[in-house]
Amino acid sequence: VQVGDILDRGEDEIAILSLLSSLNVQAKSQGGAVFQVNGNHETMNVEGDFRYVDPGSFDECIRFLEYLEEFDGEWDDAFLNWVNVSQRWKEEYRVSPNGDWLPLNFVKKNKGFAARASLFKQGGPLACELARHPVVLNVNDWMFCHGGLLPHHVEYGIERINKEVSNWMQCSNEDSDDTNLPFMATRGYDSVVWTRLYSQDSVERTRRSWDLSSIIAEQTLKSVGAKGMVVGHTPQTRGVNCKCDGKVWCIDVGMSYGVLHSRPEVCYCRYITGSILLGKIL
């Protein structure tokens, strides 16, 4: 399970999305699966907020649009193969990390912005691809989400939240109500993709605050019948760790070079005679 924020973390974003989808196809053939969960930066890009986009990713959008012209509506094949084509293209053209994005290169910037907007706008091909992924995922009695799941999210309805975000991403009709951002998932400090209640660094919080977050986590998990929760959103400078009396695992280690460029870590679980063991692989 990947818990979001693939976007706005450097170049090769579409290639990473393509790779994860390709891995999912391979995993399913062996009885497994690869899941992706949308984070706040996925929703921001569909909204048209490109403030954190790496210049190299604008380049990738331009090239990806050109590449799509070679296919006649075969989106799945084109998308799954992009991870291979992208690497060959970079090697062939020797693309520099930031492309040729000089401050006064307005033509290049406009072309890159237009390419990204067409791909990620509501109803655009990459927005529809992201719409396939949930905001909240339940796997084997464990909840996965980007920011965190809170009691009022459960009361509102997890399936309802996922459906609203998916419909919003796919919608291209400006007259439809689905053009409005789903507030419960994407807006406010306590929305599903923005809350840091569980993942905030311990040095920034009081003991009372930690006790409260543990109570809220326990209440939330009990209401959905889950054993624990896994979240991202906030880079953990000390690596993958558990909080809230072991109920919440925080797995964003900021490994992208656009964040902390830290070493990769993976949270794993094993089921043994009805019990669960959680840990991390460095």
Structure overview:
The protein is an alpha/beta fold and 282 residues long. The protein folds into two domains: 6-34 and 45-123, no CATH class; 134-281, Metallo-dependent phosphatases (Purple Acid Phosphatase, chain A, domain 2, 4-Layer Sandwich). It has ten helices and seven strands. The chain has helices spanning 13-29, 40-47, 55-68, 75-93, 106-120, 125-130, 151-156, 158-170, 183-186, 207-224; strands spanning 136-139, 142-145, 228-231, 241-243, 248-250, 266-272, 275-281. The strands form two sheets. A five-stranded mixed sheet has the order 1-2-3-5-4. β1 (136-139) and β2 form a beta hairpin. α1 (13-29) packs across α4, α3 crosses α4 (75-93) and α3 (55-68) packs across α5. The longest helix has 19 residues, at 75-93. The two termini are 16 Å apart. The mean pLDDT is 87. It comes from Aegilops tauschii subsp. strangulata (Goatgrass). This is Calcineurin-like phosphoesterase domain-containing protein.
Characteristic terms for this protein:
five-stranded mixed β-sheet, Purple Acid Phosphatase, chain A, domain 2, single chain, alpha/beta, 2 domains
Helix content: 40-55%
Q: CATH superfamily of the largest domain, please?
A: Metallo-dependent phosphatases
Strand content: 5-15%
Taken in chain order, the helices and strands follow as HHHHHHEEHHHHEEEEE
By DSSP, the count of extended strands is 7
Pfam family, one: Metallophos
GO molecular function: hydrolase activity
InterPro entries: Calcineurin-like_PHP (IPR004843), Metallo-depent_PP-like (IPR029052)
Domain Calcineurin-like phosphoesterase: 3-109
